[in-house]
Design goal:
92 residues; mainly alpha
Length: 92
């Protein structure tokens, strides 16, 4: 998963301790990912990257999630009368 690899690279490149890796998730995650993140914080408190990494993989790096994203992408159709071009393309 690209997101996981990115966090791991930043952590290595800047030699960040484990506790700093998950610090920005509350601003990085949006919509359903943000709601999921808040629920886990409420249930388990603040955790280190070694705890978050498998949680993210289990939640978002599975076949069902990939299928939903692919299906939404394939079914999305641009409507010039209704959609603004730049926001629509950025969401794809």
């Amino acid at each position: 998963m690209e997101f996981i690899r990115g966090i791991d690279m930043i952590k290595e490149d800047f030699e960040l301790p484990d506790r700093f890796s998950a610090a920005g998730f509350s601003t990085l995650f949006t919509r359903s990912a943000h709601r999921w993140y808040i629920k886990l914080i409420q249930a388990h408190g603040h955790q280190r990257w070694t705890w978050w990494k498998p949680q993210i993989i289990n939640k978002w790096a599975n076949d069902a999630c990939r299928f939903r994203v692919e299906k939404a992408f394939e079914s999305a159709q641009f409507n010039a009368d209704k959609d603004k071009d730049l926001p629509w393309f950025c969401q794809q």
